[in-house]
Design brief:
Shape: globular
Bound molecules: adenosine-5'-diphosphate, magnesium ion
Radius of gyration: 31 Å
Structural class: alpha/beta
Number of helices: 27
Distance between the termini: 38 Å
Largest sheet: 7 strands, parallel
Strand order of the largest sheet: 10-11-9-12-13-8-14
Helix content: 40-55%
């Protein structure tokens, strides 16, 4: 019996199976069935040849216009030259032996032609084409079918296996297929109008009409969503099954003391979210909550209150930040918010006080050893750190809460590693400032509860954003910066790269690779840089050059300019951040290290150089660094782009401050994988046809179905086919994770 796991060679023979395995990673019957056509051609309709692109592998429907043969000079035999057409344009086909072709390639015949598009002088050619004549006169039944069906076009598997040979293989496989266990239960299929699995494969591989294709695709997209949601539902159930200690604040404890000294009122949103978190922490199951909120919406305060209630209950909290700069900043701001509450056990410290410890990878050994000790002994109630926190030798006395800031940079695996450090499973709070459209949240963070802070605290100033694309205005930008500094404010200037030190400056230039290698902190730009490689050859602004340029700029004479980037020594970074926070630096030229979380209320201007090189959400994040105080913020997006599309993207950012609508736009414009990020490769590997925005309804349906099934049957004992599909999806995920290392 043929099953999905049957090796393909057993069904279609090794000569066909080998190239598919070699070029397309297709090994089993199931792989082949999942190797679905990229598109479909209508047999009656000639393919528009004006769309051809040189170098591309194509399969087209065309008509033979004329055929000539001539004897070859050096050898025996005759050459054949055929010209095929779509009625307007022509393509040349050349065969070095007329033998076998002459009878088939006759003027007027239509056929399927496959090959690589080439150009010779002014004529387009198909080099070494493969072809199949579609002859309505012919008795052959297969050909008749060709003519009544859409023609599926597959990616070829090497030269020996063009699209239609793959199609033949698919036909054989479909013909031998009896039944496949369907992992979507019949009642769900009925309710959602889904075809069964075998029908789906038939519709995808041998559709008669467009409608067939969409029915097949619909089922397949549903499957993608359903698989992911089932995994998430199981994760959620598993978390529900875990037991942990409730972490309640105590009367007269830290949280109460902190509340009493908080210099402001929590917004209604903050209160609501705090209550949600408090009720999670009161339960005997670990919290698993995502807190999203615009930059500056006050997530940190909310998280800090949760940490304090955990400390009140005798536990510790860890705050995991994606970058060193951000970890330091959190450390500083938490320490200062807590005041003497963070000086537990010290002279002058509060009696109920605790300690806050910073742990990063680049600390000197002594300081680090002390930090490790504080964490392990429980002296530190709060441990703030970078991924250094995740390492094996880091131990906690009683880790009760893990707060992950800016989640999009951390993988699920990292999150889990930190959670493994508690005596009991710790509660988890994930914070993100990148607003996430609902279905993305549901897919990427679908095993978590979600809280959202929608309003900004009172007294926030609006940020005005302008695109500066005319070089005549570039100098005006710097004059504006100078005005702002004279008014007592500060400015950020962000560049897409660090750049190389001037060889004359006496600084050792870094090796080339190092200069191009992005430090941890700069990772986010890379997607844009890779995608739109500097086609025009224009150098991107580097922090180092920019600094030199600004120092020479008369408009900025006398201003205190400093730089900040990921390649600097941690202490230097720290000094610069302190200096900027203290107001002793007027203009900070930096990479995206300042993207997340950096909070200096006196900074009012954000100039972003080569703004076209940044993604929408990233620009939005960056500008969130200004307008945090009482003075209005100004963001200038400097660009020399000539692309209309890029310009539109920048205009969109300038036009609205609504992070959610920008996040949607971002998702529409970027590939899904970029949005999901490296963090989510497991989920991503499940998504092929599904689009997280367009298929919103389908995702909601699949989620509802999956959660209902898992709730009723957590181990999927009554759904063995589904259990198998999930197991193999998780294997893939595991494999992808291991591959990434
Ligand atoms: P986020 O982490 O969401 O970007 P933060 O928690 O860092 O935001 O808050 C940004 C700034 O707003 C901080 O300086 C914080 O002290 C302040 N802040 C937070 N909540 C309030 C509030 N309710 N009223 C006034 N200021 C607040
Ligand atoms: Mg923050």
């Amino acid at each position: 019996m043929v099953e999905l796991s049957t090796p393909l060679g057993k069904v279609v023979g090794q000569p066909s199976a080998t190239p598919l395995a070699k070029y397309r990673d297709v090994h089993t019957v199931g792989d082949l069935l999942d190797f679905v056509p990229r598109r479909y051609l209508e047999p009656g309709k000639l393919t528009d040849l004006s769309q051809l692109v040189e170098g591309e592998d194509v399969t087209i429907v065309a008509k033979v216009d004329r055929v000539t043969t001539r004897p070859m000079r050096q050898r025996k035999g005759r050459m054949l030259n055929a010209v095929i057409t779509d009625g307007k344009r022509e393509l040349d086909l050349t065969f070095f032996s007329a033998y076998g072709h002459e009878g088939r390639l006759v003027p007027g015949a239509s056929g399927l032609f496959a090959g690589t598009v080439g150009r010779y002088h002014q004529t387009w050619q198909l080099t070494h084409p493969d072809y199949e004549i579609l002859d309505p006169e012919e008795e052959d039944e297969a050909v008749h079918e060709y003519l009544s069906h859409l023609i599926p076009i597959y990616l070829p598997a090497g030269r020996k296996m063009p699209s239609w040979k793959v199609r033949n293989v698919a036909q054989i496989v479909l013909g031998s297929l009896r039944e496949i266990p369907d992992h979507v239960p019949p009642d769900v299929r009925k309710r959602r109008g889904l075809v069964d699995l075998v029908s789906m494969y038939r519709l995808l591989h041998e559709p008669a009409t467009d409608k067939d294709v969409s029915r097949g695709r619909y089922r397949r997209k549903y499957d993608e969503a359903f698989t992911v949601q089932t995994v998430l539902a199981q994760r959620r159930m598993a978390a529900e099954g875990l037991r942990t200690r409730p972490r309640l604040p105590v009367p007269g404890g830290l949280q109460e003391a902190f509340d009493a000294r908080m210099p402001f009122q929590l917004t209604a949103g903050q209160q609501e979210v705090s209550a949600e978190i408090a009720s999670d922490l009161a339960r005997e199951h670990p919290m698993h909550r995502l807190l999203q909120g615009e930059v500056g919406s006050g997530k940190t305060v909310v998280a800090l209150r949760a940490m304090l209630s955990v400390i009140d209950s005798g536990g510790q909290a860890a705050l995991l930040a994606p970058t060193e700069v951000l970890a330091q900043q959190h450390f500083r701001s938490i320490t200062s918010m807590l005041g003497d509450l963070a000086e537990g056990g010290m002279l002058g410290g509060s009696e109920i006080g605790t300690r806050v410890t910073l742990l990063t990878g680049s600390q000197p050994a002594g300081i680090r050893r002390k930090a490790l000790l504080d964490a392990a002994s429980g002296d530190a109630g709060i441990v703030v750190g970078t991924h250094a926190l995740i390492q094996e030798h880091v131990q906690f006395f009683d880790l009760g809460l893990v707060v992950v800031d800016e989640q999009h940079r951390f993988g699920v695996e990292q999150r889990d590693a930190l959670r493994g450090k508690g005596k009991q499973p710790p509660h988890t709070l994930v914070m993100t400032a990148t607003p996430i459209p609902r279905t993305v949240a549901m897919t990427v963070f679908g095993d978590m509860e979600t809280s959202t802070l929608r309003e900004l605290p009172q007294g926030r100033s609006p940020i005005a954003t302008h695109v500066v694309s005319n070089p005549r205005w570039f100098q005006r930008t710097w004059e504006r910066v100078a005005e702002e500094v004279r008014a007592g404010h500060q400015t950020y200037v962000v560049c897409p790269r660090i750049g190389e030190p001037d060889p004359d400056s006496g600084v050792d230039p870094l090796p080339r690779e190092a200069a191009q290698d992005w430090s941890d902190e700069d990772v986010d730009v890379s997607f844009d840089l890779e995608e739109s490689a500097p086609a025009a050859g224009r150098e991107l602004r580097g922090v180092l050059e920019m600094e030199a340029e600004l120092r020479d700029n008369p408009a900025l004479a006398g201003l205190r300019i400093s730089i900040l980037h990921g390649r600097m020594a941690p202490d230097d970074k720290e000094d610069v951040m302190q200096g900027f926070a203290a107001g002793s630096i007027d203009v900070l030229v930096a990479t995206t290290v300042i993207e997340v979380g950096v909070d200096v209320a006196n900074a009012t201007v954000m100039v972003i150089m080569d703004a076209d090189r940044f993604g929408i959400s990233q620009l939005h994040q960056l500008r969130g660094r200004v307008g945090r105080g009482t003075s209005p913020g100004l963001c200038l997006l400097v660009t020399e782009t000539e692309s209309e599309q890029v310009r539109q993207r920048l205009d969109a950012v300038a036009a609205t401050n609504d992070g959610f609508s920008l996040a949607r736009l971002d998702l529409e414009q970027r590939r899904e994988g970029d949005v999901l990020g490296a963090a989510q490769s497991g989920v991503r590997s499940q998504l092929r046809l599904l689009r997280l925005l367009r298929d919103e309804d389908l995702i909601l349906d699949a989620r509802e179905d999956a959660f209902a099934i898992v709730t009723a049957d957590p181990g999927l004992d009554r759904h063995p086919a589904l259990r198998d599909v999930i197991a193999s999806a998780l294997d893939d995920e595991q494999a992808a994770y291991l591959e990434r290392g």
